[in-house]
Amino acid sequence: MNPTRLFLYGTLKRGLSNHSLLRRQHFIAEAQTVPQFRLVDVGGFPALVKVDSNPLSVQGEVWEVDLECLIRLDRFEGLHVGLYTRQKVPLLPPFESAHVEAYFYLGTTQGLPDRGANWTENGPK
Question: Is the predicted pLDDT of residue 125 greater than 60, yes or no?
Answer without folding.
Answer: no
